[in-house]
Amino acid sequence: MAGWKTQAEVAAIRKRYPAGSRIELDYMNEQGMPPGLKGIVKSVDDAGQLHMIWENGRSLALVPGEDRFHRLPEPQAEKEAGKEVLSGETEEMER
After folding, report:
1. How many angstroms separate the CA atoms of 90 and 37, rounded?
2. What does the alpha-carbon distance between residue 45 and residue 32 come to, in Å, rounded to a whole number?
3. Cβ atoms within 10 Å of 30's Cβ, excluding its own
4. Sheet of strand 50-54: strand arrangement
5. Higher model confidence: residue 84 or residue 15?
6. Cα 87 → chain centroid
7. pLDDT tens by residue, 24-54
8. Residue 56 CA: distances (Å) to CA of 34, 35, 52, 59
9. pLDDT computed for residue 93 by the predictor
10. Can you give the three-state secondary structure of the chain, one letter per residue?
């Protein structure tokens, strides 16, 4: 187990992974939890564990320092990036 986290560490985890954050699993030592599985953060508890809603229907928590995972871009950020690409393509087409 990764051990106890300080209040400051838990606060940093909550700031980095607020409820609604999209996560992709890289590694969890748990059967049925393959790399690439995606989920949404439901909450972060006082121990710094991320309680999840996984696309496979499970609700296992992620333990930072024990499980490996990364945050996915927010849908709005993807839309904004797409707008920049499209506006750049439109400018080129107009020339």
Report:
1. 36
2. 23
3. 11
4. 50-54, 38-44, 22-27, 68-71
5. 15
6. 28
7. 999 999 999 999 999 999 999 999 999 999 9
8. 10, 12, 11, 9
9. 42
10. CCCCCCHHHHHHHHHHCCCCCEEEEEECCCCCCCCCCEEEEEEECCCCCEEEEECCCCCCCECECCEEEEECCCHHHHHHHHHHHHHHHHHHHHC
**Token pair in block for residue 5:** 């986290």
Cβ neighbors of 51 (< 8 A, separation 6 or more) are 41, 42, 43, 44, 45, 59, 61
Owner of token pair 């992620």: 62
Q: Which two tokens stand for residue 55?
A: 């696309």
Please count the other Cβ atoms lying within 10 Å of the Cβ belonging to residue 36.
7
One-letter amino acid at 91 equals: E
